Task: structure prediction
Amino acid sequence: MAMNKDRLEYFKQYLTNQRDTLVSEAMKTVEDMSDEEETFPDPTDRASLESDRNFLLRIRDRERKLIVKINEALARIEDGTFGICEMCGEDISEERLKARPVTTLCIDCKTEEEEKEKIGS
Ligand SMILES: [Zn+2]
Result:
């Protein structure tokens, strides 16, 4: 069943805002990094900067992955598959979508997948 237009518009707005926030934060991180590089030319300070930078890169990687997920969710809004479970084709509950709009699985399939992962590890 297709989600009504108003709901889709709501999720589209929500995801677009979330993506904008992530992108501007990621950009700020990059700017901070270049600032620090100029203010800490001392080799000792540079060493601690290197470890900080690894930390920042990890955050950015997580941000980047989330941005990709948001883009995919927005693409599903466009092609009309948003809110439909990838595995079973059933509707994903609206409460679940509100909590996690980038999800592609209904709660039943997600639980099943997590069970499989538990057995696998
Ligand atoms: Zn499902």
In short: The radius of gyration is 19 Å. The chain has a mean pLDDT of 84. Helices lie at 5-39, 43-79, 94-99, 107-120.
